[in-house]
Amino acid sequence: MNKVRFQYICSLCIYLLALSCSVPKIAEVTNNNTVPVSYNSGTDTLNMASLQWRSFFTDTNLVKLIDTALMNNQELNITLQEIEIAKNEILFRKGAILPNVNLHAGAGFEKVGLYTSQGAGDASADITPGKRVPEILPDYSAGLYAHWEVDIWKKLHNAKKAAITRYLSTVEGRNFVLTNLIAEIANTYYELVALDNQLDIVRQNIELQKNVLEIVKVQKEAMRATELAVQKFQAEVLGSQSLEYDIIQKIKEAENTINLLLGRYPQEIIRDKSNFTGLLPQAVQSGIPSQLLANRPDIRQAELDMAAAKLDVQVAHAEFYPSFDITSSIGLQAFNPSYLVKFPESLLYSLAGDIAAPLINRSAIKAEFNNASARQIQALYNYQRTVLNAYLEVANQLSKISNLANSYDLKSKQVAALTKAIDISNDLYKSAHADYLEVLMTQRDALEARLDLIDTKKEQLNAVVNVYRDLGGGWK
Q1: Do 318 and 154 contact (CB within 8 A), yes or no?
Q2: 450 to each of 51, 279, 284, 456, how far by Cα in Å?
Q3: How many other CB atoms are found less than 10 A from the CB of residue 198?
Q4: What is the pLDDT of residues 227-282, one digit of tens each?
Q5: Residue 116: which H helix or E strand, with range?
Q6: pLDDT (tens digit, 9 = 90+) per residue, 279-321?
Q7: In terms of residue numbers, what domain contains 343?
Q8: What is the CATH classification number for the domain harbouring 125?
Q9: Is 243 exposed, middle or buried (0-12, 13-18, 19+ CB in 10 A)?
Q10: In angstroms, rounded to a whole number, what is the distance separating the alpha carbons of residues 377 and 383?
Q11: Which of 327, 363, 418, 382 has the alpha carbon at shortest distance from 143?
Q12: pLDDT tens digits, residue range 1-45?
């Protein structure tokens, strides 16, 4: 009999394994993506991304703002909670590998029919001489119950590895948020200081225009100018005053943008407004493109997501194979509490092993496997796109820094020429060698050039901040 049972069990196992052999194969997904050797012709490996942000930014006011943001920024705090969620997922997956043991205690009663096998047997059974089994039978029990899925195909271990990989991915996601947060604060700070300087320029220009307006009024009284000239100069003053309020509004909005990033309600942003045009952008050391793979948090995150997706495919693939479960229990059971302590009569135990494989409803497993395979390919494309985007971002910023340097030099010369032209036009107008339109146009051109020069300086500083961010700096 035992030989027959053994043969039956062996035949069943062979049949289940045969079913498992018909599972689809895991497609090989390889990453053949490579980055260029350099951004231009240089191969210097010195990289500014290795600098800590406290060393990169030298403005103490800006450093204080960043410090405040690192404590209070809501988006950054949200990503920290995502890290905690991912950490708990690891504990969940780790728990699935270990046996599940439960402590059980219960009480109840049962009344079975007399004309049944159990009822007839109870009616004729004596517990002790002269005492029969009660008709309404209580049931008291206490014990341990265990269940364990033996991880033959590494399904549970791969699920745990995927959870660990996604946890590391959320850490890189937090670093990516950090780099963007620091860059956004710095860019808005420089924008704010640039607006302060533009406001000073506009106010200086208003005073200059008012002085010229008074001269034109005097000349009108002396019959050397017309009312048209007076009205044109008056309109120019009003236009500049309107521009002043536009800049004031932009300053308020920039301050509140920084306050939002710092997680606080509106208040004045302390900053150094002096010598903005004299600020020199930090020297750029871009290193080589391959360093992006180690420095950029978004690339590292995409790489980890790709590894997690590969593990998900292996988990889904293992669902096609038989699962082996072991269940066991040990405890005490009796219909009278006083009998619970009587050994071995009240002792119960069991041990069972089950092998199960999907037979009929395999479409759901196939669908999940196909979805996992598709998500793996998506993760690969996302990684390749992230690397390409990172390279292009750095290349664009490096080109922008070079072109802005040339543009700033030319605009500085333009401002110097137009500033000198203002004095010349005023002198010519006073001596009647130039009309009021030439004076107006010269002042307008000079104002636009000076404001544009401030904008170019801001773009220079922002470009250096952006290339620092794009190279992967700011999170260390």
Answers
A1: yes
A2: 34, 16, 26, 10
A3: 25
A4: 998 999 899 999 999 999 999 999 999 999 999 999 999 999 999 988 898 888 88
A5: none
A6: 888 899 999 999 999 999 999 999 999 999 999 999 999 999 8
A7: 101-150+322-356
A8: 2.20.200.10
A9: middle
A10: 10
A11: 327
A12: 455 555 555 555 555 555 555 678 887 887 777 888 888 767 788
Domain final residue, candidates 330, 356, 382 = 356
Three-state DSSP state, 145: strand
In Å, how far are 2, 92, 348 from 122, measured between CA atoms? 32, 46, 19
76-114: burial string, b at 16+ Cβ within 10 Å, e else: beebeebbeebeebbeebeeeeeeeeeeeeeeeeeebee
Number of domains in the chain: 2
Instruction: Report how far Cα 209 is from the mean position of its chain's Cα atoms.
Output: 51
Contact 292, 394 (CB under 8 A): yes
Summarised one tens digit per residue, pLDDT across range 339-394 is 888 888 889 999 998 988 887 778 889 999 999 999 999 999 999 999 999 999 99
> Residue type at 193?
V
The model's pTM:
0.86
Residue 175 lies in a domain: yes
Token reading at 460: 């220079």
243-249 contacts at long range (C-beta below 8 A, 24 or more positions apart) = 243/202, 244/199, 244/202, 244/203, 244/206, 247/195, 247/198, 247/199, 247/202, 248/199
**What local confidence, expressed as pLDDT, does residue 430 receive?**
80
Q: Give the closest residue to 386 by CA, choosing from 464, 289, 303, 287.
A: 303
Give me the pLDDT at residue 374, please.
96
Could you tell me if 179 and 286 lie in one domain? yes
**At residue 414, what are phi and psi to the nearest 5 degrees?**
-65, -45
**DSSP per residue, 187-228:** HHHHHHHHHHHHHHHHHHHHHHHHHHHHHHHHHHHTTSS-HH
Please check whether residues 112 and 192 belong to one and the same domain.
no
> Quick one: how far is CA 337 from the chain centroid?
59
Contact criterion met (CB below 8 Å) for 170 and 86: yes
Answer yes or no: are the C-beta atoms of 157 and 97 closer than 8 Å. Answer: yes
Structure tokens at 107: 């009480």
pLDDT recorded at residue 273: 87
User: Does 24 sit behind a cis peptide bond, omega within 30 degrees of 0 on the bond before it?
Assistant: no
